[in-house]
Amino acid sequence: GGQILRNSTALSVLLEIPIQVEKIRAGRSQGGLRPQHLTGIQLLAQLSEAKLHNGNIGATEIFFTPKTIRGGNYLADTKTAG
């Protein structure tokens, strides 16, 4: 689900460990990444200079490789109620 995705990418950034997340929101009527999930992952990618592979709406698997956290001001808008 979305919570596992958010937690795993955040821990990946903090620990500087690359991750692969599979079966994202599997079993849901609209499985895969939704706009709010993708926005959160993109924000984490920006602040850690990460490489995000397969980061698009509907993706059921991502590869996330963070680098060092950069301080700064960041803005994210999901453009949804999520």
TrEMBL record:
Superkingdom per UniProt: Eukaryota
GO molecular function, one term: RNA-3'-phosphate cyclase activity
InterPro entries membership: RNA3'_phos_cyclase_dom, RNA3'_phos_cyclase_dom_sf, RNA3'_term_phos_cyc, RNA3'P_cycl/enolpyr_Trfase_a/b
Domain RNA 3'-terminal phosphate cyclase: 1-82
Stored Pfam families: RTC (PF01137)
GO cellular component: nucleus
GO term, biological process aspect, one: RNA processing
Name of the molecule in the record: RNA 3'-terminal phosphate cyclase
Species annotation: Rotaria socialis
